[in-house]
Amino acid sequence: MNRRRTPRLLALAAVAATAALAAGCSDSTTAAPPEGAVLAQQLHPEIVRELSHDPTAFTQGLEISDGTLYESTGRVGTSWVRATDLDTGAEIARADLMRPMFGEGVTVAGDTVWQITWKDGVAIARDAGTLAQQRQVSYDGEGWGLCTQADRLVMSNGSATLTFRDPATFDATGTVDVTLDGRPLDRLNELECSNDGFVYANVWTTDRIVKIDPATGAVVASIDAANLEDALPASERGGIDVLNGIAQIPGTDRFLVTGKLWPRMFEVRFVA
What we know:
Strand content: over 45%
CATH architecture: 6 Propeller
Number of strands: 22
CATH superfamily: TolB, C-terminal domain
Strand order of the largest sheet: 16-17-18-19-1-22-21-20
Order of helices and strands: HEEEEEEEEEEEEEEEEEEEHEEE
Number of helices: 2
Oligomer: single chain
Structural class: mainly beta
Low-confidence stretches: 2-29
CATH class: Mainly Beta
Shape: globular
CATH topology: Neuraminidase
């Protein structure tokens, strides 16, 4: 999303949003979860190492495939998608979005990189090696996050609903409603489809990442990632925006996590 927040406003928003999450988006912070609800495990990121990150990147999507890190960014006139070597950081390819498109999530499905847009209703299929545009398809509603499972894409639109899509045609094939402790959880943003079949999602304007069972929509783990912004030196926090961007390092239990306009990325494990 493109709404800009100051660090102070971000902090206040995170406190308010955390309270709302704890209440399951209910007006009562003391309300008990609905009977039979799956209760989320509480986790936090354990920092393994820090990596540099482009501080001009308004990060919307992050994914690793075959040793390549793909990142997409937003804002009209400055939206792009870039492929870099995961080990060296060297740029392999880059493609800019033409005005008035506002870039959002990105994912890799076979030889295709799919990039979505916010309110433009357009998904772009690109060559995974060169990022050259192959075609465009249309979809209804907004586009926020995107990731790939074995036989389908998973897409968020800022609501509490995830949409499943065909990886070849981008046609919608189904949906699931996401719940935290039995209550709807909206503002689902950047997505990561993990090796174990779960879907991780940033919750927009908060420091929260949730782990979702896509079969039921239940959040099985809620990750408080506030320690990542705290790990940034004070001198680097002035121009940053919200936490956004998560990519599993294939074959491991570790993830790369960053934020919009953050000068660093963190390699983390999610632990109790």
